[in-house]
Amino acid sequence: MERVEGRAAVVTGAASGIGLAVSEALAAAGLRVLMTDLDGEALAQAASSIGVADAVPLDVRDPDAVSDVAQEVVDRFGGLHIAVNNAGIVNGGNSWELSLEEWHRVLDVNLWGVIHGVHAFVPRILATGEEGHVVNVASMAAVIARPGIAPYTVAKHGVLGLSDVLRGELEAASAPVGVSVVMPGAIRTGMNPIGTVEPSAVATNVLDAIRRGRPYVFTDDHSTEAADTRLRQIIASRADVLPG
Fold first, then answer.
1. At 219, is the pLDDT very low, low, confident or very high (cuts 50, 70, 90)?
2. How many CA atoms lie within 13 A of 232 on its CB side?
3. How confident is the model at residue 121, as a pLDDT?
4. Which spans in the chain are helix H?
5. Closest CA to 67 of 119, 20, 26
6. Residues 6 or more apart from 101 whose CB is under 8 A from it?
7. Residues 92-127: pLDDT tens digits?
8. Could you read off the pLDDT of 118-152 as tens digits, one per residue?
9. Any residues with CB less than 8 A from the CB of 135 and at least 6 apart, and which?
10. 91 closest CA partner among 68, 115, 107
11. Half-sphere exposure of 38 (CA within 13 A, CB side)
12. Nearest to 87 by CA among 29, 155, 144
C-alpha cells in the first residue's frame, strides 16, 4: 500500500500480545483502528493504554458477530482497508488423546476465526475500490510440525493455505488488495511467556508487510532450519514415486 495514513483497520485478538502490538503500530502510523477481543475488560484497558478509543468485544467463532464488527468499522470510519486476523489459542496433548471438544475449541478460533474474518472483511475491503491488505497471523507451526500441539498445527497450516489461495484469487480479480501470512517464532506472549522476541518486533514486520506487500512474514530465526529441512524432505520424496 502506497499510503496507510488515514486508512481504517480492524484487529482481532487485540487485547494483548501480538494483537495489541500491531494495533499500537497501526495507530502510531496514522491508521484508524478498531480493536477487538473476546475479553472485553482487557480490551478496554489495552485500547486506553495506546489511546485508541474504538474497541469492541468479539468472539471470532461467531460469524454473525464478525460480520457485525466488519460493518461497524465501515459505519465508524467510512470504509475498511486493513484486516488483521490474529486471534488464537493453543492447547497440548497427543492428537489421539485430546477430546473432540478440545479439537473444536482450537480449530474454531484459530482456523474458523480467520475464515470468518476473510468472509466478512474482504468484501468490505473490496467495496472501497482502494488499496487494502489482509494479514493472517499463523505461526511457525504453519511450516513445521511439532508433536503435542496437533489442533494448533492443523489450524495454522490451514491459515497458510487459505492465505495463499486468497492472494491468488485477489490477483486473478486484479484487486488492489494484498495478503500477508505471518509466521511468528519465539514471541513473548501470554501463550509463550518464555519467548525471546517481543511482540513489537512482529508489529514492525506486519506494518512493513502491509506497506511493501510481503506475502510471507517471518519474525525471527526460530525453527527456520527445521522448516527448511522439512521442505527439502518433502521435495526429495519426489524421487520415491514408483511407476504404475
1. confident
2. 6
3. 98
4. 17-28, 40-49, 63-77, 100-110, 112-127, 150-172, 199-212, 224-236
5. 119
6. none
7. 999 999 999 999 999 999 999 999 999 999 999 999
8. 999 999 999 999 999 999 999 999 999 989 999 99
9. 22, 82, 83, 84, 85, 86, 179, 180, 181, 182, 206, 209, 210
10. 107
11. 10
12. 155
Q: Are 29 and 103 in contact (CB under 8 A)?
A: no
Q: How many angstroms from the chain centroid is the CA of residue 212?
A: 17
- One-letter amino acid identity for 12? T
How many residues in the chain?
A: 244
Nine-digit cell string for 168: 491468488
User: According to the model, what pLDDT value does residue 223 have?
Assistant: 79
3-state secondary structure of 146: coil
Q: In what order do the strands lie in the sheet with 216-218?
A: 55-57, 32-37, 8-11, 82-85, 132-137, 177-183, 216-218
DSSP conformational letter for 35: E
Please report which helix (H) or strand (E) contains residue 85, including its range: strand 82-85
Specify the pTM. 0.94
Cell of residue 38, nine digits:
473476546
Which residues are designated catalytic? 152
Q: Annotate 174-220 with three-state secondary structure.
A: CCCEEEEEEECCCECCCCCCCCCECHHHHHHHHHHHHHHCCCEEECC
d(CA 133, CA 180): 8
> What structural domains does the chain harbor?
8-240 (3.40.50.720)
> Is a pLDDT exceeding 80 seen at residue 222?
no
